[in-house]
Amino acid sequence: MKTIAPPSAKTAPVTPRTKQASRKGKKAWRRNVDITGEEEVMDDIREQERLGLGRVEDKTDDALFETDTKGDDQIRKKEFNNKKLRIDEILTPKSGIPSLTSRPRKAEPAKPKREFSLAEQARIAKAGNGLHATKKQKKDATMAVYDVWAEPPSALVPEDEPWAEQYTTPKVPETLRKKPKAAIVVPAVVPAPAGASYNPRFEDHQQLLRAAIAEEEKRIEQLRKLNEKAPEKKPRHEIVQEVGMALDAPSPSAADGKESEEESDEDDEEAFAPAPTRKLTKTERNRQQRRKEQEAQAAAKRREKELIKSMARLDALMAELELLKDEHEVKVSRKRKAREEKELGVQRLSKFKFEKPSMVHDVQLTEDLPDSLLHLKPEGNVMKDRFLSLQQRNMIEHRQRSAKSHKYADKVYEKRDYKEFQ
């Protein structure tokens, strides 16, 4: 007798078993075997070789890793920052017995807290949130790839901003922090010569007078040379008369000029006319060859005679060489001394040249010297001396007082009140 099972009693359907593909032969093996993982690995290796990185398995440990021998400064700072101060170590209690408690004091009454309404509390909270609110930055979802062993990239201009220029920090010159050599060697206050004293010795005063006279004579000589070089100025009427005579002088006629030009052209043609050329005979060529040989022999004999003469005066030549050597050494020392004087001298820091003050104005004659301190008059200007000293030590540039220039001439007006008063 057949029994029918209820629907709930039915079992789950059984999945049919997949039939294994054939692996007989190379073609079937290649077609039915999955080698996707192996191909991905091989593609990754080929890509590394194409980029020049190479396989990681083939590289040594030195190429992959680097030994840090310097250490991290942050760890060292953190270790030393945890150390207590000496004052804190002294004040730290080391006794096992607790200290005596002090006398209890009455606590100060607490200040009554202010009560805010709900509206005020909401307003204060809103204002506080607005002050402390910060805009959150979104993190880039894309993962950046960096080469750990690559060199740090140089500062380049972004491709999307071609107008931007690379900024370089201005380099401070080394001479900015160095004092001028003249400011170090030359003293700030140069003492006056002994002859400039209010009661000098006779010899010192005479020596100072001679130096002042020599300086004044040199200045007068330079002025005289400048006047000699300058052209002599003629009166206006003489210049006008000479110009009029030059204009009234008769000029050569055009015909004479034309004839002279034709004659000059004929002379030029005769001068530059090519000479007739002809072929030399064998006798003439032999004669030229003998003449060249004779000239070469004569030149060789002259050189031999000069060599014999120079060998005879070898001692004189050695003396001349020694003299030239001494002159060269003197010239080199003179140049070195001039270079040192230039370094210690006044440099041109502006368009104006530094003019050393003349000593003629500071020298007094013998009869003008005071016989006592009561008759001594104040001379010179300390401010001017300090200013000239700064210029002489190359600490400030040289300047000159600019002349006042008026664009228009001053006009004089007569007011109406002045006219009525008259």
Describe it:
- InterPro entries: Nop53/GLTSCR2.
- The chain is mainly alpha-helical and 422 residues long.
- The protein contains 14 helices and no strands.
- It has helices at residues 26-32, 36-51, 61-64, 73-81, 86-91, 118-132, 181-185, 202-229, 236-248, 254-271, 282-312, 314-344, 382-392, 416-421.
- The mean pLDDT is 77.
User: How many whole angstroms does the radius of gyration measure?
Assistant: 54 Å
Shape: extended
Q: Note the quaternary state here.
A: single chain
Tally of helical runs: 14
Content of β-strand? under 5%
Mean pLDDT: 77
Can you write the helix and strand succession as a string?
HHHHHHHHHHHHHH
Structural class: mainly alpha
Distance between the termini: 164 Å
Q: What is the total tally of β strands?
A: 0
Major β-sheet annotation? none
Runs in which pLDDT lies below 50 for 5 or more consecutive residues are none
Helix content class:
40-55%
Helices and strands, with pairings:
Blueprint: H1 26-32, H2 36-51, H3 61-64, H4 73-81, H5 86-91, H6 118-132, H7 181-185, H8 202-229, H9 236-248, H10 254-271, H11 282-312, H12 314-344, H13 382-392, H14 416-421
